[in-house]
UniProtKB/TrEMBL annotation, chain A:
Localisation: Cell membrane
Protein name: histidine kinase
A GO molecular function held by the record: phosphorelay sensor kinase activity
SUPFAM superfamilies: ATPase domain of HSP90 chaperone/DNA topoisomerase II/histidine kinase, HAMP domain-like, Homodimeric domain of signal transducing histidine kinase
Leader peptide range in chain numbering: none
Keyword field: Kinase, Membrane, Phosphoprotein, Transferase, Transmembrane, Transmembrane helix, Two-component regulatory system
Keyword Transmembrane helix: yes
Organism lineage string: Bacteria, Bacillati, Actinomycetota, Actinomycetes, Kitasatosporales
A single GO cellular-component term on record: plasma membrane
Reaction(s) the record says it catalyses: ATP + protein L-histidine = ADP + protein N-phospho-L-histidine
Chief location: membrane
EC number of the protein: 2.7.13.3
Domain Histidine kinase: 276-497
From TrEMBL, chain B:
Modified residues (4-aspartylphosphate): 55
Name of the protein in its database record: Two-component system response regulator
OmpR/PhoB-type domain: residues covered: 130-229
Domain Response regulatory: 3-120
Length: 508, 230
């Protein structure tokens, strides 16, 4: 049995896009949204938390200092000397835990911790604010890259007018613990961001999946449709936009299938009509062909006019028979009802037989190397040869040269004449049906003197294509070798051998 | 001259063929339907018919069926099919039904006459010089032109008999389809090789012990057929 040479157009999957694809865009978007949300929320929360912590610390520091100072200052005599001022600072500091307390009076200053360097932490700004104000002031400073809170307050007399006594107390609170707290907060938030982003990416992938799966199905269905599978449809699920799209696709495919079916119907009708007409013509033609022979045989005994008429009837009947034959053949090709009846064949012998059958052996210069064998349908090759050589003999000028050659995986048969060649516009249309240049076509009939049917070259080309080959036409070839040649028709056939092809056996 | 039966429903085609054949000395009987043709063959004049030209497109019983019935009645009457289309399916089916040859309408008078002559030549007994074949129960008597398998006579239509004689004349030698078309059918180089394939198929069905695993007539892919060796 024959191997079908059909090329099923399988809808092929396309490579999945990673860059610029919907999936990537969705993931990037999701991750960005998650990041922005996380960062914004974290920043706000962090600021709130940090402010709250610091405020609590400040309030506590101010409150403690005021309490302690009030308690200690009650038994304190002004003006102080350096010793009493130092004792004062130490007493205030004792009730405040581990804070450094500095007491100042005019030019005197005393520190609860004599080794502590306080001048860097108590700024002139703060001191000015304390000296001119009548309430506690505080300032956060960074000293040796550590944070401190410095609270300062003037000591006022307890009686009604709240005069400042000139005594100032400063307490330096270490803020490292608070800083560490807020830093820990920030670190934990930062640690939380990575899972959030990952989760966002996963969610994005899931979302992309729910969007992409129907889209991909739709894409596959569309490609199948484009590949000629008009029955391709997609399942419609849900009521979202994608379902709408799927529904629209299905409706479009329905419409396409319907119009395609209609077109095919019309085409089939037209083909059947041509075939039927040709068929109907064959019966009267069969009768005419028979009796025309009788007329031609007896023409010599007829009066001259009747003899001419009889011969004309004979010739035209033969021409009509050829035309009908060609119409049938073309409609068979159109209906794809042709089968290649191929077997391994000696090509040189086939070409020689074609020429001999039509009495062209002496009119054609043939270069036919022996030993070229290929799987072809001999009858169809004969039709091609008859057509190309017949054309060359009728429309070109001698010598007509037929050259058979092998060319790798191909075998070529070149038919060249030495006439004027074909003008470019004729070259393009020479294979059209019923194309009448001055180069009317011939179906290689035994009497090549008659007019062709106008379908010969079209049939020759169809026959070549049926073998998986082509026929090309060129004008006058350039160069020394082929200078002066007219039209050159080249048949190219794939050089298949019998072992590559099951041979058609009659069914048993 | 030989006597031909024309089976054709179209009156003009039938008359045209009859006219041409009579002019060239053939005796002609005509039938417009298959039933009519079979009745004629069964009748008193049936025996004088030496060849049938059979149109495939007939009203009532179609040509394939008529061909099969002619074959069932007479194994040796040559049948040439007249097909109104060169469609492959028709030709193959017709050949399987037992036709010896086919021509496509419209057929010219010279072609029709040549085919009829060739078919009749195949039917003429022509004793061959080669020795008889006696192989695995298959006996081919070239003088008597008879074939027996396991002692049972196998009646063969002329084309199949000629094909068998041609193949068995040179056992072990491969004959191409073209050679066989020329020597058995008298067709030129461009004859239809399916004629050979169909005749080989019919022949195998009659002489091979297992037609699907032929021993006598072997296919040589890409070249043709070979008789034996077993």
């Amino acid at each position: 049995m024959k191997r079908t040479r059909e090329n099923r157009d399988r809808p092929r999957g396309r490579p999945r896009r990673f860059v610029g694809g919907l999936r990537t865009r969705l993931v990037v978007t999701f991750v960005l949204v998650a990041l922005v949300s996380a960062v914004t929320a974290t920043t706000l929360a962090y600021r709130e938390a940090r402010t709250a912590v610091l405020r609590r610390t400040q309030d506590t520091a101010v409150h403690d200092l005021r309490e302690r100072t009030t308690a200690v200052a009650a038994d304190f005599d002004l003006p102080p000397d350096q010793r009493s001022l130092a004792r004062f600072a130490a007493q205030v500091s004792d009730g405040l835990g581990a804070r450094i307390v500095v007491a100042r009076y005019r030019d005197l200053a005393a520190t609860s911790d004599r080794y502590a360097d306080t001048s860097g932490r108590i700024t002139a700004e703060l001191r000015a604010a304390v000296r001119t104000g009548d309430d506690a002031r505080f300032q956060r400073v960074t000293w040796r890259s550590e944070p401190y809170l410095v609270v300062g307050m003037p000591v006022t007399y307890a009686d009604g007018d709240r005069r400042t006594s000139g005594l100032e107390v400063y307490a330096i609170t270490d803020l490292r613990a608070e800083r560490d707290d807020t830093a820990a907060l920030l670190a934990s938030v930062r640690a939380g961001t990575v899972p959030v982003v990952l989760l966002a990416a996963v969610l994005a992938l899931l979302a992309a999946g729910t969007v992409l799966r129907p889209v991909r199905k739709l894409g596959r269905a569309t490609r199948a449709l484009a590949g000629g599978h008009l029955g391709s449809r997609v399942a419609v699920r849900g009521h979202d936009e994608l379902a709408d799209l799927a529904r629209t696709f299905n409706e479009t495919a329905d419409a396409l299938q319907a119009s395609d079916a209609e077109l095919r119907e019309q085409e089939a009708k037209a083909r059947r009509f041509v075939a039927d007409v040709s068929h109907e013509l064959r019966t009267p033609l069969a009768a005419m062909t028979m009796v025309a022979t009788v007329l031609e045989e007896d023409a010599d005994q007829l009066p001259p006019d009747a003899a001419r008429a009889a011969r004309t009837v004979g010739a035209e009947t033969a021409r009509l028979a050829r035309l009908v034959e060609d119409l049938m053949e073309i409609s068979r090709f159109d209906a794809k009802a042709v089968r290649l009846n191929a077997a391994e064949t000696d090509l040189a012998g086939t070409v020689r037989a074609s020429l001999a059958l039509r009495g062209w052996t002496d009119r054609v210069e043939a270069h036919l190397p022996e030993g070229l064998r290929a799987v072809v349908d001999r009858r169809r090759i004969d039709v091609i040869v008859a057509n190309l050589v017949g054309n060359a003999l009728r429309h070109g000028a001698p010598p007509v040269v037929v050259t058979l050659a092998a060319d790798g995986a191909w075998v070529t048969l070149e038919v060249a004449d030495h006439g004027p060649g074909l003008p470019p516009e004729a070259r393009e249309r020479v294979f059209d049906r019923f194309y009448k240049a001055d180069a009317a076509r011939t179906r290689g009939a035994a009497d090549a003197g008659g007019q062709g049917s106008g379908l010969g070259t079209a049939i020759a080309l169809e026959n070549a294509r049926l073998h998986g080959g082509t026929i090309d036409v060129a004008g006058a070839a350039e160069g020394a070798e082929g200078a002066g040649r007219g039209a050159v028709f080249t048949l190219r056939l794939p050089l298949r051998r019998a072992d590559e092809e099951d041979e058609g056996e009659a069914a048993e | 001259m030989a006597h031909v039966l024309l089976i054709e429903d179209d009156v003009s085609v039938r008359d045209g063929m009859e006219l041409v054949l009579r002019r060239h000395g053939y005796g002609v009987d005509t039938a417009a339907t298959g039933e009519e043709a079979l009745a004629l063959l069964a009748g008193e004049h049936g025996a004088r018919v030496e060849l049938a030209v059979l149109d495939l497109m007939l009203p009532g019983m179609d040509g394939f069926e008529v061909c099969r019935r002619i074959r069932a009645r007479s194994a040796t009457l040559p049948v040439i099919m007249l097909t109104a289309r060169g469609d492959d399916a028709d030709i193959v089916t017709g050949l399987e039904a037992g036709a010896d040859d086919y021509v496509v309408k419209p057929v010219t008078a010279p072609v029709l006459k040549a085919r009829i002559r060739a078919a009749l030549r195949r039917a003429e007994p022509s004793a061959r010089q080669e020795p008889d074949t006696d192989l695995a129960g298959l006996v081919i008597d070239r003088a008597g032109l008879t074939v027996t398998r396991n002692g049972v006579p196998v009646p063969l239509p002329p084309t199949e008999l000629r094909l068998l004689l041609e193949l068995s004349a040179s056992p072990g030698r491969v004959l191409s389809r073209e050679q066989l078309l020329e020597s058995v059918w008298d067709h030129g180089f461009l004859g239809d090789s399916r004629l050979v394939d169909a005749a080989v198929g019919r022949l195998r069905a009659k002489i091979e012990h297992v037609p699907s695993k032929p021993r006598f007539i072997q296919t040589v892919r890409g070249f043709g057929y070979r008789f034996g060796p077993l």
